[in-house]
Amino acid sequence: MISFNCKSLVCPICGQDLVQSGGSLVCPEKHTYDIARQGYVNLLPVQQKHSLSPGDTCEMLCARKRFLNEGHYSPICADVVKALGEIPGEVSALADVGCGEGYYTAEFLRRFPAAHIIGADISKAAVKMAASRTKDISWITATASHLPIADNSLDGITAMFSLVCEEEFARVLRSGGRVIEVTAGTDHLIELKRIIYDDVFEQYKHPKDTQGFLNEISCELKKFRISLNGEQLSELLLMTPHTMRVRPENRARIEAQSSLELTVEYYIRILCKSNAPSADWE
What we know:
By secondary structure, the protein is of the alpha/beta class. The protein contains 8 helices and 11 strands.
């Protein structure tokens, strides 16, 4: 039987604590969630799904796993690890929301081995793939807008190129807890865009203004360069949303590239929990 760490996890229907009973997680109201043999739990009720298979496709996830495992984005990961280490007090409980196939989440565990870490993604395929990395992370299928996590129970949340639901994140963070958010900068992968699109429109990117539930501590724009060969370029395109928009003839232009140097530009923003009231479970 798989042992699953359900600390901080609550029932997505009634909001009560979950405990493991045999091969399932169960709440006092007897809502039951099976632990998959791969080591994850689906805590995404049907009423919280907006499509049959939300999130990234298996093809995109596999491409992302291969690309990230090669270390191309390791400076981003290092920045986030540093920011997590600066959270005041003991860092004992973290959630990587929008964890995807688990590259960053597994690295956070490596750097904070004593912490309880939750990896959450709306894509069942993503958490299934992530669970193959390690069973020492609580992998769950869940939506960022309704996290099955107890109030005031986390020291930190990471959002790696994923959605920040400010009010919900504030609910699950303890006082002084922080969100580490990474978003793309204006020139992120600009060289790739110039090849796959006929016209690249000027688009200024910046993290969204906060809504009062979290306070911005810092927001820093960072940049580095990577050099990719043709196969790596194809993997990069496949792992991004651009793959669904590019025309076949422009995709062929990428496949014809033997190598390309790219700009990686991103914001790393640190948000701290304010004294906002907790949201009620519905």
